[in-house]
Amino acid sequence: MRRRGRICSLFVMFTLLIALIPVGSANAAPAWNLVWSDEFDGTSLNTANWTAEIGTGSSGWGNNELQYYTNRTQNLQVTGGNLVITAQKESYNGSSYTSARIKTQGKKSFTYGKIEARIKLPSGQGLWPAFWMLGTNIDTVGWPKCGETDIMERVNNNAFVNGTVHWDANGQADYGQVSGSLDFSQYHVYSIEWDASYIKWFVDGVQFNQFYIENSTGNTEEFHKPSFLLLNLAVGGNWPGAPNSATAFPAQMLVDYVRVYQQSSAPSIVSGGVYTFASKASGKVMDVVDVSTASGAKIQQWTNYTAVNQQFRVDSTGDGYYKLTAVHSGRVLDVPSSSTATGVQLQQWDDNGSNAQRWSIVDVGGGYYKLISKVSGLAVDVSGSSTADGAAVQQWTDNGTDAQKWALTKVN
After folding, report:
1. CA-CA distance, 75 to 135, in Å (whole number)?
2. pTM for the structure as a whole
3. Which of 67, 177, 268, 271 is the most buried (most CB within 10 A)?
4. Which of these, 130, 144, 124, 79, lies nearest to 100 by C-alpha position?
5. Of the candidates 162, 241, 239, which has an alpha carbon nearest to the alpha carbon of residue 4?
6. Mean pLDDT by 10 residues, the chain (412 residues)
């Protein structure tokens, strides 16, 4: 899917932008909790996590790649504690090469975190292995508006890997850097650390790139929304060019594991505890309109009367997220229709286990937290920073204002 003109006119502008942001301005190293992994310890691909893509895509997956992706064992296996993606030179369904590409789309997606994989990469002219992410909204907004984060790409016999982002800033925009030289006869751990301020790239724990995204600077709102993961080994394409007589086939990409961590962001939250959520901007609490028990009842702020429709049970879902259940109704805090749009007023709804009902609770200091929707990557917000009773509680771009900071008080 990596469709690109290799460098666009915005590259230089964003190189200068990033250069003006001091490395020391980034946050201190966070504590990480493992929330999901695939260790590839079985004998077949875990289809609860991954889907194998088939075919040649559109225009060679947007890059004029030469391979045909299959799910055959010749191209895709889990064996010996590894995911093994094998590129072969063979005539197959009109293509001269075969390989494999897998994705977590529709199965696993993440907003922010430390995302890493331990991989051994092949070398050879025309080979293009990658570990990367695309925004979950790609089917509705297209590329590059969905955003793409390339955690690791290597082409040909390069002595380094690339770490790159692609997004829409009134046209395709790209920013990337390369690592130091690596010994590709060995495994290496390729990772990013991604939060509301930065995306940072690492090889074996050594940082080689960072990209500033705080407050969606430079039209980077794509990078505050959920993304899914991909692993593939492409053959040929606009960037690497075609294989030559020196390229050895079969060529293999070996993946020992893929792991996703989230920040240990809510250490004082007791799972199963009942809390009120008070806005820092107004001092008023999250409230279900009219003490309604109906699905679809809206969420507002209101003066704290210690009423049951202002109390929410906070339950960990075991993956770094929480669900918030209104005590009076038994229904949960929900983003209507799983919307990713800003300004959508939140509601209570029947507990259906969807990402629209999952929230990360992130400590922002001073006794306050922000609540980030898993489905949209947007923050729980008081509309217009209002201090009035009845102001809508909505989702909005994470901007760090007091309207998005909440004091949690345990009442039971």
Report:
1. 26
2. 0.67
3. 67
4. 130
5. 239
6. 42 41 45 84 94 97 98 98 98 98 94 95 98 97 97 98 98 98 98 95 97 95 95 98 98 96 70 95 97 98 96 88 96 96 97 94 85 91 96 93 94 89
